[in-house]
Inverse folding.
């Protein structure tokens, strides 16, 4: 596989990001949701991973004072299991470390074993189940890790 690069998401990337979103999520975000994150949310950072300039994945995370939240991370199905998601998440962790963030939290669907495995591999612990968290009534697993590198 060609090597990938990571950079900040720009509005030009949106069509490709929406395609990935639709392929990856039960309840995908709309374009307006991402635009709001990009332009109107001072806490949000959005990064994309590209291969030969093509967007193959992205992450959206918030840093609010000493805590961070992963809101969305997705890799195009044709490029999954090639460590691109891990590279995006490591970039988030590095940024959090540089900004002296204390911990990173997230919610993931209880049925998303791939996602839970992914986060567990990166040191996130399952803290609690949030019942009926999603609009279809599905529970969320609330996960957290400290920000120490290699943690
Ligand atoms: C979760 C996701 C972002 C992982 O990205 P990725 O680039 O495919 O993951 P990586 O190649 O970096 O994998 C890292 C680890 O995650 C776990 N993992 C990834 N894909 C997996 C799968 N299909 N089954 C089980 N575990 C998996 C493994 O522990 C893997 O390590 P390994 O390959 O050494 O076994 C990607 O599968 C995805 O976009 N899924 C759909 C969207 C989603 O569920 N996002 C997370 C919730 S917001």
């Amino acid at each position: 596989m060609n090597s990938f690069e990571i950079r900040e998401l720009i509005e030009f990337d949106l069509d490709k990001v929406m395609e990935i979103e639709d392929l990856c999520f039960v309840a995908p975000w709309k374009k307006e949701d991402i635009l709001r994150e990009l332009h109107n949310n001072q806490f949000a950072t959005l990064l994309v991973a590209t291969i030969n300039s093509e967007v193959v994945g992205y992450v959206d995370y918030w840093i609010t004072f000493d805590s961070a939240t992963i809101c969305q991370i997705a890799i195009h199905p044709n490029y999954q299991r090639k460590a691109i998601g891990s590279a995006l998440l490591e970039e988030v962790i590095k940024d959090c470390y540089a900004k002296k963030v204390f911990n990173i939290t997230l919610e993931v669907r209880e049925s998303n074993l791939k996602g839970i495995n992914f986060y567990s591999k990166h040191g996130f612990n399952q803290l609690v189940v949030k019942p009926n968290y999603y609009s279809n009534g599905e529970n969320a697993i609330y996960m957290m890790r400290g920000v120490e590198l290699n943690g």
Observations:
- DSSP finds four helices and seven strands in the chain.
- Strands lie at 5-8, 44-51, 54-64, 67-75, 103-109, 125-130, 140-146.
- The chain has one domain: 5-146.
